[in-house]
Amino acid sequence: MKANGIGFRLPGEQWRLVHPPKGSSFMAVHTGEHPRFVPSLMVATGKLDPEKSLGQRADELVAESAAFGTGIELGPRDQLGQDRLFQSFVVTLGENEQAVRVAQLQTMVRFPPGGDGRHPVIVFSLAAETDRVGDLLDDYHAFIASASELPTASSNDPEVD
Fold it and tell me: Are 39 and 29 spatial neighbours (Cβ–Cβ below 8 Å)?
């Protein structure tokens, strides 16, 4: 697969491609029985102005997710060197007995600036119900580890190699 010049592989046959939502370059959902929330892997790409930090972009991503829920709980955030950041949080979707607690793991990678001075950024995300996220960690890590640059790619749409 590839999205915006970054190549990657799905972590197994239990994941299938779907059309990504606006603002994302790629999305795959987990097959199987998921009565309340279907786990997903997503890739979003963008540009980061030189004066903006990864932490500021991470704050924006949390706020965007919070807008869809009825509550948010911040988890760990770790700066992994100058150009990588990991964060996790839980968004509550719905209310009362209908509420679903969805954990979101995000790994952001910033690349050297382009000709416009802005840094390309890629965000890898896993979203799953809190009681399922532990079962999917290996898949999330394998998905991120499979990423590699494809310098000739120019499409924003994911493609199967």
Answer: yes
